[in-house]
From TrEMBL:
Similarity annotation: Belongs to the disease resistance NB-LRR family.
Record-given protein name: Probable disease resistance protein At1g12290 isoform X3
Disease resistance R13L4/SHOC-2-like LRR domain span: 406-712
Domain Disease resistance protein winged helix per the UniProt entry, residue ranges: 295-365
PANTHER family xrefs: NB-ARC DOMAIN-CONTAINING PROTEIN, NB-ARC DOMAIN-CONTAINING PROTEIN-RELATED
All residue ranges annotated as the NB-ARC domain in the record: 39-207
Keywords, sorted A to Z: ATP-binding, Leucine-rich repeat, Nucleotide-binding, Plant defense, Repeat
Taxonomy of the source species: Eukaryota, Viridiplantae, Streptophyta, Embryophyta, Tracheophyta
Gene3D superfamilies attached to this UniProt entry: Helical domain of apoptotic protease-activating factors (1.10.8.430), P-loop containing nucleotide triphosphate hydrolases (3.40.50.300), Ribonuclease Inhibitor (3.80.10.10), Winged helix-like DNA-binding domain superfamily/Winged helix DNA-binding domain (1.10.10.10)
Species of the source: Camelina sativa
Alphabetized Pfam families for the sequence: LRR_14, NB-ARC, WHD_DRP
Length: 764
């Protein structure tokens, strides 16, 4: 028998008898903690999608029914399945289907990014995407499509049985499924009575349900009024979770049933139900803040800071002695809206500074804001609908707010009479080249005007001075080269954003705006001069300043002005050579939020000596980016930023340690207690982040990329990065050899974190 075996071995080739199973490159997406009643359709959808005969699968159903949740669970299942799929791509499409945006999202997932790729035409990008995906077994998940998506225009290869590629999408319209070639789509339906009650019970909580013997029966009536819609069950359930009297529950039943009888179709079943959560908001000002969120396009992340500034200028938030008080009140309102499930907070550590409104909730907000029984046109929202010109308005005189965000409007003409208009959103109309002076003549009450991201807009008319009530003006990311003299006549202007205006030649005369409290000047072509600094000093009410500094003399003058230092919120220090600033000494700056130091030659960053442990120098500093600073050897000054959440250190060839053991010993501070994200890139001399394990209670991600080969040990032990029993950390790396060389604190640490290591390649 052995001879037979030997003979067979001599005739065969057995160097490789099996391949390791391929696991898809997929990003796990967050899910809400309570999901009820989807197991059956999840298994059905998964089995249907993975069937060899299925190339494209469509999921349809009404808004808020759980289509996105179902697609998310399918996405996440690929993360744990070895089925031969190589890459899973998630794209949110929404109503304003724009090929270039979809190509951008797909490109980012497969490594196509940077200036060169962004400048390519849609056709060239389609070729790149097609060439890449045609060699991969991919799954494309398209969420929330409203019309046929031309896959070939994007560059998506047609899925075939031979390739094993799959496409799945969600939509509200069954007709869209047919237009996509799916004639047997799966309907995602509302929950049955049992599952709906189960979900509602979990949202309300047993404590509330047991607070009175009659509440469970009344609660069943409220749950039935939600008609099995998961979104309504979640929103109303969370609203009722704190209601512990029968009177409150009876009132809920009365309100829900009364409104539901007044409207047909979808609005009859959804909007009145969702409106009950709106009706329960604590004040009219909070309700106004909520309705204001509907001015943004659907599926848009709304920056919290910007939104609060709008609210303040609109008068929804009472004036405080300082802007800080008003901003804090704004965050309280945002928290209330998030807890009421009327807004959703950013889904991951990169967008916690944003909120989002579910599109069904947005429809409800628009329905309320339009005052359906009286003046339907007091609020006009035509955001992201592809407009080429201003919409026709029956009666401009009743209009209070107008949002034309993200359209293709080229020119704005006419002289509409708008005595009640307070907010005008015209941002992100990238074809806009001209606004006539007459347009602003009859808008005496406008307080918010946003013209940001109009990259082709090169000028403003002098008649902007007619906006006598204007408090908020955003011109950021436009191509305006000169500010009109009329702008300097806006005596009530409180907030002026000029960031990233790369064509702007001067802001001379800015001290003519006596009410100015917020001035944003980051990323301008013009340099900060001594004369401009003198003008800034004359702005007596200034509270928030963002600025870029590129000369040592301007830096010295800035840091010597205690009043301007107190105003600094974001600062960019660039291109200072070693001869001009050998040691950068920073004073305490209590309101500083973000710092960028790039292309500088200083040898050290230090803190003024009056720093105490009880009063840190930078209590609000959350984001720091150090890039191209080749003289620095450590960043020990970060010890005095206790609330730092994001730290990026790139291309600094002499950095040896982030925190120096020798320097830190004198301070006695444990760093990085709030750090969420650490990105290290091209640091050839880096040996240490910290010399001993740190707790890192908030750390989500460490990313070590490109030439960090001397960093052999991470400051982790088996107890690091654990919050409430959850293990949070993901370690991304760009070099397989680096992972193999990592020295772990002990075996328990290795076993704990090695499975969290993921190879991620970046093309920068």
């Amino acid at each position: 028998m052995l001879n037979v075996v030997q003979d067979l071995k001599s005739k065969g080739f057995f160097e490789e008898v099996a391949h390791a199973a391929v696991r898809a490159m997929a990003e796990e997406r967050p899910l809400q903690p309570t999901i009820v009643g989807q197991e059956t359709i999840l298994e059905k959808a998964w089995n249907h999608l993975m069937d060899d005969g299925t190339k494209i699968m469509g999921l349809y159903g009404m808004g808020g029914v759980g289509k996105t949740t179902l697609l998310t669970r399918i996405n996440n299942r690929f993360c744990d399945t070895d089925d031969g799929v190589e890459i899973v791509i998630w794209v949110v499409v929404s109503g304003d289907l724009q090929i270039h945006k979809i190509q951008k999202e797909i490109g980012e997932k497969i490594g196509f990014k940077g200036v060169e790729w962004n400048q390519k035409s849609e056709n060239q990008k389609a070729v790149d995407i097609h060439n890449f995906l045609s060699k991969k077994r991919f799954v494309l998940l398209l969420d929330d499509i409203w019309k046929r998506v031309e896959l070939t225009e994007i560059g998506i290869p047609n899925p075939t049985s031979e390739s094993g590629c799959k496409i799945a999408f969600t939509t509200r319209c069954q007709s869209v499924c047919a237009s996509m070639g799916v004639h047997d789509p799966m309907e995602v339906r509302c929950l049955g009575t049992v599952d709906a009650w189960d979900l509602f019970k979990k949202k309300v909580g047993e404590i509330t349900l047991r607070s009175h013997p009659d509440i469970p029966e009344i609660a069943r009536k409220v749950a039935r009024a939600c008609r099995g819609l998961p979104l309504a069950l979640n929103v109303i359930g969370e609203t009722m979770a704190c209601k512990k009297t029968t009177q409150e529950w009876d009132h809920a039943v009365d309100v829900l049933t009364t409104y539901a009888a007044n409207f047909g179709a979808v609005k009859e079943k959804i909007l009145p139900i969702l409106k009950y959560s709106y009706d329960n908001l604590e004040s009219e000002s909070v309700k106004s803040c909520f309705k204001y969120c509907s001015l943004f396009p659907e599926d848009t992340l709304i920056e919290k800071e910007r939104l609060i500034d709008y609210w303040i200028c609109e008068g929804f938030i009472d004036e405080y002695e300082s802007k800080e008080g008003a901003v804090n009140k704004g965050h309280v309102i945002l928290g209330n809206l998030v807890r009421a499930s009327l807004l959703v907070e950013g889904e991951n550590f990169n967008n916690k500074s944003y909120v989002k409104m579910h599109d069904v909730v947005r429809e409800m907000a628009l329905w309320i804001a339009s005052d359906i029984r009286t003046q339907k046109e007091n609020c006009i929202v035509r955001a992201g609908v592809g407009l080429n010109e201003l919409p026709k308005v029956k009666d401009w005189k009743v209009l209070r707010r107008m949002s034309l965000v993200n359209n293709r409007i080229k020119e704005i003409n006419g002289s509409p009479e708008c005595p009640k208009l307070t907010t005008l959103f015209l941002q992100d109309n990238r074809l806009l080249v001209n606004i006539s002076g007459e347009f602003f003549r009859c808008m005496p009450r406008v307080v918010v005007l946003d013209l940001s991201w109009n990259v082709n807009l090169k000028g403003l008319p002098e008649q902007i001075s007619e906006l006598v009530s204007l408090r908020y003006l955003d011109l950021s990311d436009s191509s305006i080269g000169r500010l009109p003299v009329g702008l300097l006549k806006l005596k009530k202007l409180v907030h002026l954003n000029l960031e990233s205006m790369l064509c702007l030649e001067s802001v001379s005369g800015i001290d003519h705006l006596p009410s100015l409290k917020t001035l944003r000047l980051l990323n301008l072509r013009m340099w900060l001069t001594i004369s401009l600094l003198e003008e800034l000093k004359r702005l007596e009410n200034l509270e928030v300043l963002t600025i870029e500094i590129t000369s040592s003399s301007a830096l010295e003058q800035m840091l010597c002005s205690h009043r301007l230092v107190r105003c600094l919120q974001k600062v960019s220090i660039k291109f200072l050579d070693e001869e001009s600033v050998r040691i950068l000494t920073l004073p305490s700056i209590s309101d500083l939020r973000e710092v960028f130091i790039g292309g500088c030659g200083m040898r050290e960053i230090s803190i003024e000596r009056n720093t105490s442990l009880t009063s840190p120098s930078f209590p609000n500093l959350s984001k720091v980016l150090i890039a191209g600073c080749n003289g620095l050897k450590d960043l020990t000054w970060l010890l005095f930023a206790p609330n730092l959440t994001h730290l990026n250190v790139w291309n600094s060839r002499q950095v040896e340690e982030l925190i120096s053991q020798e320097k830190a010993a004198r301070a006695g501070i444990v760093p990085f207690r709030k750090l969420e994200y650490l990105h290290l890139w091209d640091l050839p001399e880096l040996k240490s982040i910290y010399w001993s394990p740190l707790p890192f209670p908030c750390l989500n991600r460490i990313n070590v990329q490109n030439k960090c080969r001397k960093l052999r040990k991470l400051p982790l032990d088996s107890q690091s990065c654990i919050v409430a029993g959850e293990e949070l950390l993901v370690i991304q790396y760009g070099d397989e050899e680096w992972k193999e060389r990592v020295e772990w604190e002990d075996e328990a640490t290795r076993l704990r974190f090695l499975p969290s290591c993921k190879l991620v390649l970046y093309n920068r």
